[in-house]
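INFO  loader      accepted 1 record
INFO  loader      residues=180
INFO  predictor   begin
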Amino acid sequence: MPKSILIDCDAGIDDAQALFLALSSPEVNVVAITVVHGNVLTKQVAVNVLRILRVVERLDIPVYVGSETSILGHERRHDDEPYHGWDGLGDSPDPEAVDESLINPEPASAAIVRICREYRDSLTLVCLGPLTNVATAIRLDPALGQRIQHCVIMGGNYYGKSNQTIFYKACSCWKTGTYI
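INFO  predictor   done
INFO  writer      dumping tokens
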């Protein structure tokens, strides 16, 4: 029986590869994808995810848009030279625009909470980007970590810098049920 996963990502090239692998695996059932501000702005991340889903003919998977800024309110500047290109996917051409009406209006953090409740004890949360959506979901439901089976985090970045304070606070409340 396939493992049910919810993927939270910022859909750069690395996340695109991970999505393609997950979506092609018979061992995995991707139940939803939530997107977060990171490599590019969230609207572009959502478009990137829809582009990926279109390629693998899986537009049935719901996509939810999340945080536009970090949990501390810091906005990443996107006028610097972007590591994954201006569109987050290496500036690869896309002659056919995706249908943005496929983006679910429910906020990503609320969707994470709802889906973790629906799949109680049988869902793996896969975090490929900044943990802002997850931290916000934990604020909404401090017991969130008690409802998931596994949590997988792809950590690190190009510059080797991270916001360890938020990361450690987010991880410490998974089983304790405390607020960030």
